[in-house]
């Protein structure tokens, strides 16, 4: 079953990490796996890294549901949280909102020049919280892949493995990213970051996102990278993470919460006609 009337959407991005945002607070959206994949197809659909559905919540301003381009549902997305926060702030005229997700409850506030800060909660380091297939020290893992070794692992609402490398630009991300994502060590798959520490306040990072592939930015990946670096005393607890799409400022504060600051951009609005779903059924 698919929508029988035109379905409005907002196309947004956070530093090039792009989303189709749907509002399901008034009426549930019966979208199956094939429909999500078709909508995310950049040739046949609208195209996105993640599809975001805003739903009603009894304990926050809204619940944010996240599907990757492959149709899989995931727990958390930092860049999407800023985009949804921006929409909610515009809607209710406030400069602070709360968002519930499968990965946890988030608070966001607006700042100068369109910057939005999201409290991403506390990082988790236990091997079972990542999760890993067996016990391992997540500060410096006894793990290597493709010549890259001893990464750190962090769960920031979703799972990440962070490799520290001398030159992030030379990492063959398209080749090794999907293999790391599906390594048996990671039973729920994994987001993989390759981070080059420039100095104690700057890190260059590239990312392979679980279920989405190479993206121009990953908010949770930036959070995980800063935390993994600070745990090893490679950086301060606040640093700029330089992504393909721009810069996020990440702070792992004294209260053990991670604060992510960056922009949220609305690209355009549109409607998906009922006829679109016939192609999903035929796929």
In words, what does this structure look like?
With 283 residues, this protein is an alpha+beta fold. Helices cover 18% and strands 38% of the residues. It has a 17-stranded mixed sheet that branches. A hairpin with a 2-residue loop joins strand 6 and strand 7. The longest helix has 15 residues. The model has no long low-confidence stretch (mean pLDDT 95).
Structure, briefly:
This protein is an alpha+beta fold.
What topology emerges from the helices and strands here?
Layout: E1 7-14, E2 17-23, H1 33-40, E3 50-55, E4 62-68, E5 73-74, H2 78-92, E6 96-101, E7 104-110, E8 115-119, E9 144-145, E10 148-149, E11 152-155, E12 159-164, H3 173-181, E13 191-199, E14 202-209, E15 213-214, H4 219-231, E16 238-243, E17 246-252, E18 258-263, E19 265-272, H5 276-282
Parallel strand pairs: 2-3, 4-6, 12-13, 14-16
Antiparallel strand pairs: 1-2, 1-19, 3-4, 4-5, 6-7, 7-8, 8-18, 9-10, 11-12, 13-14, 14-15, 16-17, 17-18
């Amino acid at each position: 079953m698919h929508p029988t009337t035109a379905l409005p959407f907002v196309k947004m991005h956070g530093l090039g990490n792009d989303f189709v945002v749907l509002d399901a607070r008034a009426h549930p959206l019966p979208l199956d796996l094939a429909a999500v994949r078709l909508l995310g197809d950049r040739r046949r659909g609208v195209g996105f890294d993640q599809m975001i559905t805003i739903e009603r919540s009894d304990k926050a301003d809204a619940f944010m549901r996240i599907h990757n381009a492959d149709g899989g549902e995931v727990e958390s997305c930092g860049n999407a949280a800023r985009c949804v926060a921006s929409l909610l702030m515009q809607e209710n005229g406030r400069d602070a909102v709360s968002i519930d997700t499968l990965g946890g409850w988030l608070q966001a506030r607006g700042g100068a020049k369109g910057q939005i800060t999201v409290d991403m909660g506390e990082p988790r380091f236990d091997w079972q919280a990542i999760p890993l297939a067996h016990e391992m020290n997540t500060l410096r893992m006894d793990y290597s892949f493709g010549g890259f070794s001893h990464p750190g692992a962090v769960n920031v609402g979703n799972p990440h493995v962070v490799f520290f490398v001398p030159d992030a630009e030379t990492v063959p991300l398209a080749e090794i990213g999907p293999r790391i994502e599906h390594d048996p060590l990671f039973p729920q798959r994994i987001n993989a970051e390759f981070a080059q520490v420039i100095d104690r306040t700057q890190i260059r990072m590239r990312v392979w996102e679980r279920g989405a592939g190479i993206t121009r930015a990953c908010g949770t990946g930036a959070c995980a990278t800063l935390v993994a670096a600070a745990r090893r005393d490679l950086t301060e607890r606040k640093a700029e993470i330089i992504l393909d799409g721009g810069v996020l400022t990440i702070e792992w504060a004294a209260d053990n919460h991670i604060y992510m600051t960056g922009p949220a951009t609305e690209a355009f609005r549109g409607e998906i006609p009922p006829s679109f779903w016939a192609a999903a059924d035929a796929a």
